[in-house]
């Protein structure tokens, strides 16, 4: 290129470097392996929350790049109305988590006998999510991509969405029903990777009740640390809720910490492959598996988890109990299941194999031995690490 100046060559090189750096990192593992999101669309940086919303919701394939905070708090105003203090909230000093009367939760008995009416004031943006369209990648640069005060929802037939390396935070954490960070309901092919979620009112991730089909949730940090704990102990209770009607969920490499329950709750008709996750400092239960929930848990580490499995769970669990029994995984999962590890934790038991054929013909995540999982997950999960 004899006609080009040194400067143009330099900017070309910089541009080339930039296009290599900006994009989805890696490829999805597990059930949603064929997710491509916005594919090769040119990366675009939304100027503000309005443009972010427009690009997320339209029907154009997009790679949406966040390199700053998008703060929705206050953008839709606030609401003051009657909510409740649930009977379970006996935290001292007006602590704990009170509730918004969402779907009559306060008045239909769910808040428990002895619940009292109180006035609640919450941010309106937090209680409704942005409906993400099909064929989108939403990615952050370093740890700079933050969505504050609003969640994302992939629903009503939306398909093929990647959410990677962003932090979603501050959805009315003081209130039950204050907001969910990521909702999937009536979708297919969703990959949530290297996302951090903290300070939500309700769930980090909620699937259901319609079919979410193939979902991979990998390398995320779900941080339950809160000043408004439903269990009065700075641990968030409503964490992960998987109750879709026909769901295959890969849950791999996630750091799930400082929660006190429903981490996850599984039901509906959902198969969960939970592999190489690190549960840390859970003051209640990790898995709550209702009838219709099918869980293979392997290669995970539970450290300081009071109950890895809620006692009385009626669902189907394969806990990878011993090296002989674990050979049963080979036929349908393609590998011998790995043992889980427990440190200062309760137990996880279950040897149901009758649902293993649900893995047949699917892309199944690999599993590593649990040795080193705690440190590798802590070092790798969450935002700013891709
Ligand atoms: C998403 O991409 C697929 C494959 O290119 C295409 O068939 C489909 O129509 C797209 N969906 C939307 C809503 O644009």
Automatic annotation (TrEMBL):
One of the GO BP terms on file: polysaccharide catabolic process
SUPFAM superfamilies for the chain: Pectin lyase-like
Gene3D superfamilies: Single-stranded right-handed beta-helix, Pectin lyase-like (2.160.20.10)
Pfam families assigned to the protein according to its UniProt record, in alphabetical order: Pectate_lyase_4
GO CC list: extracellular region
Pectate lyase domain mapped to chain residues: 99-308
Known catalytic reactions: Eliminative cleavage of (1->4)-alpha-D-galacturonan methyl ester to give oligosaccharides with 4-deoxy-6-O-methyl-alpha-D-galact-4-enuronosyl groups at their non-reducing ends
Entry's transmembrane regions: none
E.C. number: 4.2.2.10
Residues making up the signal peptide according to the UniProt record: 1-21
Gene Ontology molecular function terms on file: pectate lyase activity; pectin lyase activity
The keyword Secreted appears for this protein: yes
Keyword Lyase: yes
Localisation: Secreted
Designated name of the protein: pectin lyase
